[in-house]
Amino acid sequence: MSTELTKSTIAIAGENALIVYFGDKPSPEISRHLANTTQILKGLLAESLVDLVPSYASLLVIYNPLKIDHHGAQKAIRNALKASANSNMAESSDSSKVVALPVYYSTESGPDLQRIADHSKLSIDDIIAIHQQIEYRVYAIGFAPGFAYLGEVDPRIAMPRLSTPRTKVPRGAVAIADRQTAVYPAQSPGGWNLIGLCPQRMFDPNAHPTMPVQVGDRVRFQAISRETFLDLGGQL
Fold first, then answer.
1. pTM (2 decimals)?
2. Neighbours of 197 (CB within 10 A)
3. What is the pLDDT of residues 162-174, one digit of tens each?
């Protein structure tokens, strides 16, 4: 068993909440362990569970105090952690799904592509190819519903956030900030570097599920043409 999977700690986060810390920083191994523990806990807590809120390397567990007490919830968490680690789920198996997201990469849809090319000394075609080569892990979801933080970007195309954020980033914008990449689920301000547009909705309150990805899932980007982007409902 990996020693990284034995570092989890549990702390009180409220009168009916506990938080599990899986490590100091996110990694693919911790992300798998977190996702598997989350799934196991859903079954162990069942109707006693109010909500599970996963993040980069932690999991907030909110429970119903009328159905389970602090000690019972903590015992369920420890059992879930043990089941995830001892069954080697986090090391040899991956219960997460792989989601393919189409992207129209171009200087028209990605106004920062040329700047990234100048910074990296690579061609725009190279940047597009490199961005598609990696299978990204969903480390967290925030600052808006459906905004999935994906990691980790190849260091050759990593870029710091803009010094002055844009006041308006379009829905579907595919972007890079440092070693992370993401798709903006709605029009909003933002300081990430824009490299393309994705026609896939990342958050739809009327759909089930409301988001195509969850923490722990993996994402691959696939280049599409301008024509295909528009046929899929994308807007320029």
1. 0.79
2. 26
3. 999 999 999 999 9
